[in-house]
Design brief:
Two copies of one chain form a homodimer. With 205 residues, chain A is α+β, with helices and mostly antiparallel strands. Chain A has three helices and twelve strands; from the N terminus they run βββββββαββββαβα. Chains A and B meet through strand 1, strand 2, strand 3, strand 9 and strand 10 of A and strand 1, strand 2, strand 3, strand 9 and strand 10 of B. Chains A, B: One of its GO terms (biological process) is ribose phosphate metabolic process. Chains A, B: One of its GO terms (molecular function) is ADP-ribose diphosphatase activity.
């Protein structure tokens, strides 16, 4: 049975009750040596890797060019936004995992695809550095197919509701316009990726 | 006189003392109708526009091709990260402003460049939807020059320490590698833009 997820209520969350995130007051010294205060939201879950999360850009490709080079994106209801959000497969890094291991694990759990190789692992990137210390890595992986695109089952935990979708990389911008028309929101990082892709194509023409 | 900015101390910030951000406990109903809890960090500054912030991608171009098509990025010490961060010009939307007006204002304040036209304004995008309701728009603007690139003074507030830098759009990835070597961190959205640009160039070859 499936219902539309929705926010039922929203209230202040005292620090003492919060499990996943917290607020920090940072005293810092500015370039003129003046003492100032900054407020920051932080995840409580960061492990010894020093990195909160990974996002995965999977390159799905056919060795016989049986389908256009594609990637896989996910749709997921996000309570802070109270809407369905379109994102790259992503997740928090577990204790004892590297960012690249987390990327391969999350990709398989959320989409069923097994990466054959890590093509590129970005440096640590910051999501919204005026407001939070949250950071992440973008890991690009190779998912080759001998011929046609394979379809595999996701390995979701109970309580995870994630829809995967394979999209041609060159059509991301177009696909996002469709999502926006039906009231979905696109993650800023993924949208910026598509904007960069689009701008390069226009520059080359 | 200029010193290296740095974090002096960091402590828990009770909700009652926080001015700029707060924590929320969201009760929501999942797709199976089950009641669940999610924790979210939120800015307290969101105005009637419903959008927290804008980032500006300025296209700096010469009508005589006197310089390669470029954009302007900023370097800024960010206390939550305790490092210098490389970002697009950006800022919060003031009350009574549209996102596009905020983009033009922030671009001029942070870089001195006056946009002549808004080329594109993205839908509302979400920065880190698993952790926060923070949202933003990416506004692309045209900054044409009759011939050579002009250089103008920033209009920073007291206490704002921002360095601007003009970069060829096709060299963003390369420039980011230099920044990383000297210990700077790149904003995830800007880095994803450059990754998308790079991937399109490789796909076209």
């Amino acid at each position: 049975m499936s219902a539309l997820p929705k926010v039922l209520s929203k209230e202040e969350l005292p620090l003492t009750e919060a499990k996943w995130i917290t607020l920090k007051k940072i005293k810092w010294s500015d370039p003129e040596g003046k003492e100032r205060i900054w407020e920051s939201a932080e995840r409580t879950t960061r492990g010894p890797s020093g990195i909160d999360a990974v996002a995965v850009f999977a390159i799905l490709r056919s060795e016989t060019d049986a389908f256009p080079v594609s990637t896989v994106i996910i749709e997921q209801y996000r309570p802070p936004i109270d809407k369905f959000v379109v994102e790259l497969p992503a997740g928090l890094i577990d204790k004892g995992e590297t960012a690249e291991q987390a990327a391969i694990r999350e990709l398989e759990e959320e989409t069923g695809y097994k990466a054959q190789k890590v093509l590129q692992s970005s440096p640590v990137l910051v999501a919204d550095p005026g407001m939070t210390n949250a950071n992440m890595k973008l890991v690009t992986v190779d998912v080759p197919f001998p011929d046609e695109l394979g379809i595999f089952d996701q390995k979701l935990d109970a309580g995870e509701f994630i829809t995967k979708r394979v999209v041609e990389i060159s059509k991301l911008t177009q696909v996002f316009e469709e999502y926006e028309r039906k009231g979905y929101v696109v993650d800023a990082k993924l949208s910026h990726f598509a904007s960069g892709y689009e701008m390069a194509l226009r520059a080359e023409q």
